[in-house]
Write a structure and sequence with these properties.
7-stranded mixed β-sheet, globular, binds pyridoxal-5'-phosphate, 3-stranded antiparallel β-sheet, about 35% helix
């Protein structure tokens, strides 16, 4: 059995793959593939309606929060957020906690002023900055709730009196938080929610319509809210598989239940990192991500030897991001704890030989 620790696209539940495969061949007993039914048919409309309703239910969203399924990845949101929220003479506040925040900052600067209220750059993004102030004059405050590459996560979401915006690509649906506290949140689906090709965007409709610039129709959130994410052809397969994944999440008890599992997986892995002298965790303990666990070997010359042991156990996807090196085990919602146990056994074996 392969143990898939890929950072994204990444593991989804086996039963979701099974159902997705069935849907490709015979979608809901229509005798047609989900790939060939029109998006305006009632059978696909039901998919869109259900995935939106399930998102609202699982996140417990209030009536002001609208759900959209868009294209362009989370990277498109780096510019779509300021396009809808920031005028040329306005300022937006951003927390710089890693590569993805930096990319978001770069795009926002094309639309207005950006106040980088804190950065973890000096310590190689190994912790979440704690001391910073956000001006009430800023139009919004943007954070990246989980930093996929550096393995850090905001354990406590900052509260602000201005609109809060978050990139939740790598920890969406993984823990109970007050999703209504966010005025915009977005996530590429390809980690906890479904396949690549669709992006979840949740917007508090009250924050829209305040900029004076013209917004192209396709980039205006109000277009997609009004048209129920059907202004143009949605990525039907990615939306369908997201629905299957959210149904699975609900069936196992929702976000609260998966959070318990995620906590257990993270505890098991960090415990081994902390107690096995061959390994060193790279993120500050209080800011450790429960989704992407980053570590290095005390002796990096042995990286290949460790990789060899993991390979024998059919562990894949644990090489660190090319920008940081070392190792990264992504332990998203669908990864079973048994896979973490196998990784821990590989670490123990390595520790006994080389520790
Ligand atoms: C936190 C975060 N934001 C943004 C992205 C970019 O997402 P996309 O490839 O969907 O544009 C990623 C991709 O891994 C990510 O982890």
């Amino acid at each position: 059995m392969i143990h898939n620790f890929n950072a994204g696209p990444s593991i989804l539940p086996k039963e979701v793959f099974q159902q997705a495969a069935e849907g490709v061949l015979n979608f809901n007993n229509t005798g047609l593939s989900v790939l060939e039914v029109g998006h305006r048919t009632s059978s696909f409309q039901q998919v869109m309606d259900e995935v939106m309703a399930l998102t609202k239910e699982l996140m417990q969203l209030d009536a002001d929060h609208e759900v959209m399924f868009l294209q362009g990845g989370a990277s498109m949101q780096f510019m779509q957020v300021p396009f809808n929220m920031l005028d040329e003479n306005d300022t937006a506040a951003y927390a710089d906690t890693g590569v993805w925040s930096s990319k978001a900052i770069k795009e926002a600067k094309l639309f207005g002023d950006v106040d980088v209220v804190c950065t973890g750059k000096e310590n190689n993004y190994s912790s979440i900055p704690k001391d910073f102030a956000v001006s009430n004059d800023a139009k919004y405050f943007h954070i990246t709730t989980n930093n996929t590459i550096y393995g850090t996560q905001w354990s406590k979401i900052p509260s602000t009196s201005i609109p809060l915006v978050a990139d939740m690509s790598s920890d969406i649906f993984s823990r109970v938080i007050d999703f209504n506290a966010f005025d915009i949140l977005y996530a590429g689906a390809q980690k906890n929610m479904g396949p690549a090709g669709v992006t979840l965007v949740v917007v508090n409709k009250n924050v829209l319509g305040k900029v004076s610039r013209k917004i192209p129709t396709m980039l205006d959130y109000r277009t997609h809210i009004k048209e129920g994410s059907m202004f143009n052809t949605p990525p039907v397969f990615a939306v369908y598989v997201s629905l299957l994944t959210l149904r699975w999440l609900k069936s196992i008890g929702g976000i609260a239940a998966v959070e318990k599992m995620n906590d257990a997986k993270a505890a098991l892995l960090y415990n081994e990192i902390d107690n096995n002298p061959a390994f060193v965790g790279t993120a500050a303990k209080e800011d450790r991500s429960k989704m992407n666990v980053c570590f290095v070997l005390k002796n990096p010359e042995l990286d290949q030897a460790f990789l060899q042991i993991t390979k024998e156990k059919e562990i894949i996807g644990i090489k660190g991001h090319r920008l940081v090196g070392g190792f990264r085990a992504s332990i998203y919602n669908a990864l079973p704890i048994s896979s973490v146990e196998v990784l821990v056994s590989a670490m123990k074996e390595f520790g006994q030989k080389h520790g």
